[in-house]
Amino acid sequence: MARYIVSRLVLTMAMALLATLVIFLIANLVPGDPILAQLGDVAASNKAFVAEWRAKWGLDLPLLERYLIFLKGLAHGDLGISIASQRPVLEDIAQYAPATIELSTVGFLISVIIGVPLGMLAAIRRDSWVDHLARIISLIGVSSPTFWLAFIMLALFYGGLQIAPGPGRLDPIAFSPPTVTGLFLIDSLIAGDFSTFRDSAAHLVLPSLVLAAATLGLITRTTRASMLDNLHQDYVRVARAKGLAETSIVNGHVLPNALIPIVTLGGLAYANLLTGAVMTETVFSWPGLGRYTFRSAEALDFPAIMGITLVVAATYLIINLIIDLSYAVLDPRVAR
Amino acid sequence: MTAFDQSQAAYAAIMPVRTRAQRWRRRYGVAAVGAAIILLWILIAIGCPLLSRYSPNAVDVTIRLKPPSAAHWLGTDELGRDVLTRLLYGSRISLTTGIVVVILGAAFGTLAGGAAAFARGAAEELIMRTTDLVLCFPPIILALAIAAALGIGTLNTIIAMLIVWWPKFARLAHSLVLVQRSQEYVEAATVVGLKPARILLRHIVPNAIGPLIVLVTLDIGNAIITFAGLSFLGLGVVPPTPEWGSMVAEGRELVEQWWVAAFPGFAILTVVLGFNFLGDGVRDWLDPRARRK
């Protein structure tokens, strides 16, 4: 088992590295110019100034040499300097990541807590009103553009009914809690500051619901399908025949067997949430990685884009690894 | 009650008697609704100049941000343009880009994946590892980076989307062809002396194409949402082209004038629902096991 994990980790890292090469080539072979995108018109017309900037980011060096410099930095845990923010990329990512992690974790929890029971009910009471309701919820969830849903929520609950707080992580006049984890929910509890905790929780409601919508639909559908597959198996008939209560058949027998596809999809959905937050963060002015990615892409800030890609691809691959490993826990037959 | 009556009663309990119309609705209902929605939007895309007396880009600041009224059914935007007219014209870009991206992506992906499964060996490894590599990027971030680098424009955005779109089709086609090529009828065709290309196109493809058609149908909705999303972020179309994603972006600060952003987004929702309905229906036909009893 340990050998399997190590070999998977090595493979994972190799893939992530290869991913940076791809991004590096894309960033350098396309026509855009990061320096010109960054400088104003006046500065961009000054040839000496532009050349100086190019030299500063090594843009005057040959392609291969630049990639080797990037790799060398990477070996020392250095992702380079962002062209747009002029700060180390790793520092930027460390600053923006907690907001996204907090948002997508809450969104993921919402979609699991609602989606799994809803999917189970839909399967057990197939063709009943619960089943139809679940189908409608999941179809609308997967068919709504996130950026539009975000707008509708804001317009309705913030602009119209005025029962929800506006965009951002906290009230504009509030101070963020002293940074420990960067997750405001946890940091405010550590500081014992309950009003900040309430404030940040209230600000999380709308964006996390929006983010949860699409995932909720997928999780409900998968749970339903996987439960249905198992409900008609012989072992369920045996359990019924020996007189087990229906609840213990469902919770004790069918659910554990139905979990593997749900966990697979759930893990991938979580990875997607971490990156799919771009739209939600834009509408809710959420200072997270999604916003940072978008701004970097817009500015053609390729050191930042490469850093994000590396981190994100590594997260993707690690979550995939965790999914694979969890099979062995969920289903002892896999480990054998 | 005779034994026959009892068995009849038991049969009726599990198999409720349905009229022909009910059976048709059960079998084709969802797909028919989806197809009807899509057809309606296609007709709108073709006939939109006939449907509105306004021009999508006619600016009139004297009537800016007017709420829905008899003259402007869905209100006007910040430049006084008619929201309904822009929404109708917007269907052209959304439908075309969605369909073009998925068809081209599916064609390239299927060809690559199918060829890989058929060729085996080093070529297969090369193609499938490339597929894995692209798949390990989150699609929206990769598309975002490429679209930003290529510059704003419909064609550039389509190219960026195509780069991230083909791998899922390659992977599906690869697994489908792998399953088919070990079937006996392929062996038989080989023994008879047919050329590999003919076996692939005339024998394997027709047998493997079902799941591909389902994925294509479901995926068009996906592509429409993604293109609209990139436009929303300012990367898709060049203003003032009427396009749903950029219309939502134009209205996103206008919480009081909700109609500017709300209706174009709702249009996206209906089209995507249409393709999802149709895809679900097609899956039920093509896969007898998934068919609802």
- Helix-and-strand structural type of chain A: mainly alpha
Indicate the proportion of strand residues of chain A. under 5%
Total tally of structural domains of chain B: 1
* Overall pLDDT level of chain B: 83
Number of strands of chain A: 0
Oligomer: heterodimer
Report on the architecture of this protein.
- The complex is a heterodimer of chains A (336) and B (293).
- Chain A has 336 residues and is mainly alpha-helical.
- Chain A contains 15 helices and no strands.
- In chain A, helix 1 (2-29) runs antiparallel to helix 14 and helix 6 (89-124) packs antiparallel against helix 12.
- The longest helix of chain A has 38 residues, at 194-231.
- By secondary structure, chain B is mainly α.
- Chain B has a single domain (32-291), classed as MetI-like (MetI-like fold, Orthogonal Bundle), CATH 1.10.3720.10.
- Chain B is built from ten helices and no strands.
- Chain B has helices spanning 3-14, 20-51, 83-119, 121-135, 139-150, 154-181, 184-192, 196-232, 244-251, 259-286.
- In chain B, helix 5 crosses helix 6.
- Chain B is globular.
- The interface between A and B is large, with 48 and 43 residues.
Outline:
Chain A is 78% helix and 0% strand.
Keywords:
heterodimer; A: 336 residues; mainly alpha; B: 293 residues; MetI-like fold; 10 helices; 74% helix; globular
Mind sketching the topology for me?
The complex is a heterodimer of chains A (336) and B (293).
Chain A: H1 2-29, H2 34-38, H3 41-45, H4 47-56, H5 63-75, H6 89-124, H7 129-143, H8 146-160, H9 184-190, H10 194-231, H11 234-241, H12 246-283, H13 289-298, H14 302-330, H15 332-335
Chain B: H1 3-14, H2 20-51, H3 83-119, H4 121-135, H5 139-150, H6 154-181, H7 184-192, H8 196-232, H9 244-251, H10 259-286
